[in-house]
Amino acid sequence: MRKFTKPTWFAIGWLGLMMFFSLFGWLLPFKPWNFVFEDDLEVGLFSSGHLLGTDSNGYDLLSSAVAGTRMSIFIAIAAVGLGGLIGSVLGILAAYLRGKIDTVMVTIFNVGLSVPNLVLALALVSVLATNVDINQAVPTWRRVMVLIISLTIVLIPILGRIARGATLSWSGREFVTAARSMGMKDSKIILRHIVPNVLPALIAVAFLAVGVVIIAEASLSILGVGIPDGASWGGMIARGRNDLEYAPHVLYVPIVFLALTVISTNHLGDVVRSKLDSREAKV
Fold first, then answer.
1. Helix (H, G, I), strand (E, B) or coil at 116
2. How far is 178 from 268, CA to CA, in rounded Å?
3. Do 54 and 239 meet the contact criterion of CB atoms below 8 Å apart?
4. CATH code for the domain in which residue 123 is found
5. Does 255 fall in a domain?
């Protein structure tokens, strides 16, 4: 840890702050994010009682950003966790067993990767998160679940290909061959020798995937099929896009939160990857 640079410490600190907001933001002495301050519409930054100002609806931007952190981080972690779990299992099994299983899984991964990620997520959310009765609003919990499932489906082929490639490089090592020659079962070889060596590569990519999911969620919200009513960073951007001319800080606040989080996850992903490269060079 002494070798960490200042940008790395900043990334760790910022992500730690975002995790604090996600877990304990409800304990902070803020009004609910959707509380309307009728006498304080579109007040600027560092105003009295509103550190980051308010939007045209009278919503406090700091309270909204803290609440949006909870939703955006939850969606990102849930989608990456599920996508990483399913994709890594499929990728590891395909690379280790080879044969027809590997051929089928590679074909599925290639088909999934051939469709643009945002287009696939947009199509899934648009179909699954709609009601037959257009006059009936879709519950927020349903949108969240559909969004997580859609982003998980998008991530499975990406993380599956990475897990497969890492498994191919490790399954040919001498210690795996020795374990096979000693009669160890394939399941034990995978759990004891393959998974521990593939996991660091997946963790490095997971940091990058979190940033990708946060941007995808924000993009879907801006397109009108994401989290409604400004309950996430993307929802805040979508809600405040009409205030750009008269109150640009309404857009800048969620954009700064989103950008710093994505930059921090990408930086930590690069740090983990560099440590992984130096580790593999010593093996």
1. coil
2. 35
3. no
4. 1.10.3720.10
5. yes
How many CB atoms sit inside 10 A of residue 100's CB? 8
What predicted TM-score, i.e. pTM, was given to this entire model?
0.85
DSSP at 192 = I
User: In angstroms, rounded to a whole number, what is the distance separating the alpha carbons of residues 92 and 95?
Assistant: 5
The parent domain of residue 241 ranges over 78-282
Closest residue by Cα to residue 212 from 223, 222, 220: 220
pLDDT confidence band for 6 (50 / 70 / 90): confident
Structure tokens at 115: 């469709």
Quote the number of domains for the chain: 1
**Residue 255 contacts residue 51 (beta carbons within 8 Å):** no
Whole-number percent of the chain with pLDDT over 70: 92
Residue from 64, 34, 33, 58 nearest 256 by CA: 64
Tokens (6 digits) for 135: 């006059």
The label of the residue with tokens 């600027």 reads 44
Look at 140 and 266; give whichever has higher pLDDT: 266
Q: Is residue 146 in a domain?
A: yes
Share of the chain above pLDDT 90, in %: 13
